Each structure stands twice: as structure tokens, then as C-alpha cells.
Amino acid sequence: MEINIGIDETTRKDIAAGLSRLLADSYVLFLKTHNYHWNVTGPMFNSLHMMFEQQYTELFTAVDEIAERIRSLGEFAPGSFQRFNQLSQIQEEQDTPDADTMIRNLIAGQEAVVKTAREVVKIADAANDEPTLDLLTQRMQVHEKTAWMLRSLIAK
């Protein structure tokens, strides 16, 4: 059945493609954060272990919301590691870095998600796609705040 929500098909596809990149970035960041939660060591173990758990739990909820928005726009959400790796600008973690490097990597990942969201905002705003704009605004707020909190751990 045809979708008639006031956004033409081409624009819906463009928005969904941008959201697919956001989904991929978010999922790879979720995986990286979960990995760090399991493998962090050092004097900040307990606080980082708990902080990383809060972050990956929040990301787990977010990926579902992003995927459901893609489906609401009439497109299929990507759902494989291979596809996420193709779409994401965040690289999977291959090693077990020290805690300081973990924090720095997560800051870069949080900021990468914000940048992807900002790119999609332009398309959604031009289409007056308020539900997507609302989702993107929420995601940017969460990721900017998380990056700030992580940066605070390594501030000199």
C-alpha cells in the first residue's frame, strides 16, 4: 500500500538512508561500548564499568527507535554486522586498549554519531519531517552530553 504522510517517496528514501547510517553508527558504537564494559581494567575499573553499561544500555534502546523510524518511512532497516560496517564511519574495535584509549575512542564515536545526525537533520528539516527531527535532536543531545562526560574523565 502506498505511503501518504506528506513526504514524497524520494525524500523518504533519502531520509531513511541517512537514518540507516545513523543506525549503523549507533550499533557499532553500542558494540564497542559493550566490549569496553567487559574488558576495561585499571584504577577506574568500577566507575568505567558502570558508566559503559549505562551507555550501551541507552544505545540498545536507541537503535530500536532509529530502526522503527526507518520502517515508518517505508524502508527496510539494515540489520547485519556486514551492512553496519559498510554504512558506519565508526570502526569496530579489534584490540583491547587501555582505559584512557577506550575513553578517547568512545568520545570520537559519540561525536561521529552527532555528525551523522546533523547531516540527516538537513534532509529531514527540508521535508518538514518533524518525527525524524525530534528523534535526531534527542540523539544529538544524548551523544553530546555523553561525549562531554567522557571528556571530563581525561581533562587535565
Give a verbal description of the structure.
The protein has helices at 9-39, 45-72, 81-87, 99-126, 130-154. It is built from five helices and no strands. Helix 1 crosses helix 3, helix 1 packs antiparallel against helix 4 (99-126) and helix 4 runs antiparallel to helix 5 (130-154). Helices cover 76% and strands 0% of the residues. By secondary structure, it is an all-alpha fold. It starts with 8 loop residues before the first helix and ends with a helix. It has one domain (9-154): Up-down Bundle (Ferritin), CATH 1.20.1260.10.
Number of helices: 5
Number of domains: 1
Strand content: under 5%
Gyration radius, rounded? 16 Å
| CATH class group | Mainly Alpha
N- to C-terminal distance: 58 Å
Kindly state the mean pLDDT as a whole number?
A: 96
And the CATH topology?
A: Ferritin
CATH architecture: Up-down Bundle
Order of helices and strands: HHHHH
Query: Largest sheet, described in full?
Result: none
The total beta strand count reads: 0
State the share of residues found in helices, binned by percent.
over 70%
- State the CATH superfamily name: Ferritin, core subunit, four-helix bundle
Secondary structure layout plus pairing:
Elements: H1 9-39, H2 45-72, H3 81-87, H4 99-126, H5 130-154
Helix pairs in contact: 1-2, 1-3, 1-4, 2-5, 4-5
Descriptive keywords:
156 residues; Ferritin; 5 helices; 76% helix
Give the gist of this structure:
This protein has helices at residues 9-39, 45-72, 81-87, 99-126, 130-154.
